[in-house]
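Sequence in, structure out.
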Amino acid sequence: MVLYGASAVASLLETLLSALHLTALGILPLICIFGLHTGKYMELLSLELDLQNPQNLVLTLGFYGTFLGSWVGAIPIPLDWNKGWQQWPIPVVIGAYLGYSSSISIVFLLCLKKTIFK
């Protein structure tokens, strides 16, 4: 979480809760489907999973969407706007949810396109 702008010591509860959000969105679905098979995780990280399979597509894009969204969400934290939503970890968690939602929407549209234009 330090990579997203968290202090190593201050805001410990907020950091823990934001880590739980990121885990629930990006990692928990992987554990539910793949279990603890590390080979599948390596395939996911190296983008070697069969992305023609909708389940793999949802898992892969959900994972990358969550963490890319949270990374982008961390951008406004150091800016000096003094807004309430700018405080740690609000933008990171919002970015994670937006990234996950966007990636799942992309999967939905791809599957819809595949179904309609068979």
